[in-house]
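Example 3.2
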Amino acid sequence: MKEFVKRKKRGYLGAIIVAAATMGILAGCGPQTNGPRNAVSGVLSGEGLGVVLELRQWMPGKPGQGGTFVPIGTATSDMQGHFEIIPDRPLVMDYYQLMVSKTSPMVIIMDSTMHVHIQAEIPDGGFIQNATITGSQASAEVHEYYAKAMPLQTTLSMLRGTMQRTKDREKMQELSDKSAQKKNEADTWAKDFIKDHPGSLALLGPLEHLEPRSNGQLFQDILKETEGPLRNGSFHQALTMATKANATQRQDAKERVVRKGNGANQPRQAKNSRYGVGDEAPDIVMADPDGTERRLSDLRGKVVLIDFWASWCGPCRRENPNVVRAYGEYQQKGFEVFSVSLDKDAARWKSAIAQDGLIWPNHVSDLNGWQNAAARSYGVSSIPHVVLVDQDGIIAATHLRGPALSAKLNELLR
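Structure, written as tokens:
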């Protein structure tokens, strides 16, 4: 697990679960190996000869504060790499961190009835990727997950860090696209692992890398399924609290947002962000090019891209091919586009729709330019601007372009 406090910048668990990523958690039940119960032993190679090992337990902090790892057992490997750790307390079934030489973590899930044995190659730093684990089936399974997930998460973190430091707009967009692609790859691996390991206690690991806002039901199902054996463990408790907190925030957003786009909510200061992620998208009711009234709310149950654009907007026209590609790829999976034009000239509006091949049916405009009622309701001050709405009518993302849009659609439409 990464340090939970630092995780806030990179993932949904923020100060509650930060440590889980770097730690690379291992979970498990399974047959006991030879040796005393309530113990961890093993043979290390590589950088694991004559080094200090710590078995650590995550201790959550007070509400709104981060927690910390507490050592509960230590040992020093001999010059052949052998070690044995006897914790200073009986272990409840939980995710624990084994830290080698203060630089290389891995995770085990065990309780006091188990003796977990590990054969591992220790790198000169970073997550332990090559290990064979006995005595805890779930530990072996979650190690399989983290061995692939952690390199992806490390690359993603580096891309985001570089993106925050760069001032070049083109370079920033390039890094943003790469970050979106890597995030999609990481999320796909997490969900594939969940699908391939039904009933495993290792499934809390992938939850640490997924967003609860767009995977709420998945979180609830896995937490409920693993509650029996893991309810007394701090990792399950932390995930449960984070999921409940997210649900509360989402409900609060629903209650404070006016359902119809009448602009009653006070605008926020950020550009194009009167409504943000977690808010319910106000309805839009407006005429299409034939004069037929179309409603955003009629598309409830589908993932909808609200696309604010205009025929005279060069950046909008250059972005249209990306939207067309996304529509062609995801329309059959439940994706729709609801285009709101800030045009004043109906002929130019209709011509741009035809020229750019915008084949979806939901095109609307009141032909009032920047005074467009929907744009004013949403606080749109520049275009192109998009708002991605999930199946429940909740805003899942904004300011998406190119590969970032495809990555988010893959997440919502799996």
